[in-house]
Amino acid sequence: GEGRRGRKLTVATTGTLRNLVVPIMFADHVNRTVPTRAELELLWNADRGHPSYYGSTNASVRSFFAAQSYGALDLNTTVGPWVVVSGSESYYCGGVSGPGSDNWMELLREALNLTDAYVDFSEFDQDGDGYIDAIAFMHSGYGAEYGGYDSYGTYYDDRVWSHKWLIFDDDNYYYDPWVGAEGVYVEDYHIESALAGVSGGNVSAVGVPAHETAHFLGLPDLYDTDYSSSGIDTWGLMANSWGWDYTGELPPSLSGWSKVELGWINVWELNSTWFNNSDKITTYVDEIHDPWWPYVMKVAFPYTPGEYLLLEYRMALENDRGQPADGLLVWHIDETVENNDDEGYYGDGTFPSSHYQVALIQADGAFDLEQGYSADSGDVFIEGDRLFNSLEAHPSSMGYLGGVGYTSGLAMTVFREGEWLAESWTTSWGDHDNYLMLNISFTNATSTANATIDGSCQDSCGGQGSNGTASCWCDSSCSFWGDCCDDFDDHCDYGSSTASPTPDEDVFCSDDNDCGSDEYCYCSGEEEARRRRKLRANGSKGGSTKSGRSGRKPSSTSAAKKGRHSGNSGGFGGHSSAKTHHHAGKRSLLFTADSCYCVDNA
């Protein structure tokens, strides 16, 4: 895929977006069975979906984005006629799955020239800037992202890998948009197969076209493009096109972060003034599918600039109906990081210096996604789960702080109080079960009672220090990090980081009765696992199978679900051979079964 970082959104993300689809028939495929133009129209435009390859009726690309945007975007697609190009599939793919081959741009230009005879491109330039607003190519081969050989014996490196990219000159050296008879330019494009799987003539599933369209709207990939970990896996379309059932017919929702990026969801920000009269508040978060006022909760004030938490309550509804559990997703965002390639987890020697741009704080504290396992029920926070204000106990609200790490001061407990809103609030689903209650506490993260971070704001801070000078010390005189410096990642230099024991590792416990009135007995390792199994039916840790651009199609076999992670590491300039990464088994947690100690109660 192609990311958004460092540039504006490609197109408008609200209103009606006219989209042109150009179906391409390779010269050696003229006798193959391919979807009709009418079938492609259903794939892209149908209100309720199309009869799918897997025998069910699900969303079209249009209805998927209508739901994800809560009606803000109407993707109105026109499918052009099939055009037959002069070369074969392997001629254009060049042994590198398309982009980067010597003949790749020749394919796109020839297809556009042929389509120009049938289509008025000016109809797809609604904003009048001289560039087409949205365009997709669909081809007659099978997608390379499925890997292996197709039913005609064509290996994946001579099939097209679905992607979003730019049009260059025929030598792939210079950016060189195509221009049609009406003077309208085509610069960005995306391409995917018109077909499902690697055999037969059935129409494509929704997932891959939706993923590539989301790239066109400006979103980056959220899987690990060097294939050493899972990114956010099935908790978001930009990491997984295939969904919980592996078919692609029910692609997962966009993550809350992606919806914020596209302007499709409200952001309700919790700030420090909420804690003016108390160190603890009780609030709630509604289910994210609710169309009336969908929102995520943002918590930024305890963190350095560009770093924050997003809280998203997601239930197993609509396209997410196959997800393993309802619950709260707690996203840890760091906008100063470029992508999800640099995974890190507690105990690996690189964390927190290494971490994702968009990380899911997993409720079981196991960092499974960073270790290459699949999304599972242990990732979501349910009733009784806690987020700890700690550097050692996980899941933790700790901040990254340029790789040093510090306690943010935040702790949280999830609970449900069924009648709390009953008299004053009715959800769009007609009951009072579609929200979660949160107890959130905040204790000054930079006070001597919790953590002391030694560091200095450099002169480039421009007098943003709490003492009004060009430099300041981040010590107990600051109420939280925002008082010290306005741009930590670029302009601040930090020394050592120390924290009082949180949890108090000197106070071991067997249950809550061994702790103080404001403390809770936290058990890591197998003891904590046993506690959590009483709250949820945990599935086995699965594998993650994905790769490049749109992401490799995962296998639904048992072998693929036992930790096998495979992918293709090549970029647009070419591919290395496909590689596999095997996990012998789930890594054990970092504490022994008797590591139980008292922590602050949220």
UniProtKB/TrEMBL annotation:
SUPFAM superfamilies: Metalloproteases ('zincins'), catalytic domain, Somatomedin B domain
Single GO MF annotation: peptidase activity
Domain of life, per lineage: Eukaryota
GO biological process, one term: proteolysis
Bias kind Low complexity: ranges: 543-558
Span of domain SMB: 453-498
UniProt keyword Disulfide bond, yes or no: yes
InterPro entries: Peptidase_M6-like_domain, Somatomedin_B-like_dom_sf, Somatomedin_B_dom
Disordered: region residues: 533-580
UniProt KW keywords: Disulfide bond
Segments forming a coiled coil: none
Protein name per its UniProtKB record: SMB domain-containing protein
Source organism of this protein record: Heterosigma akashiwo
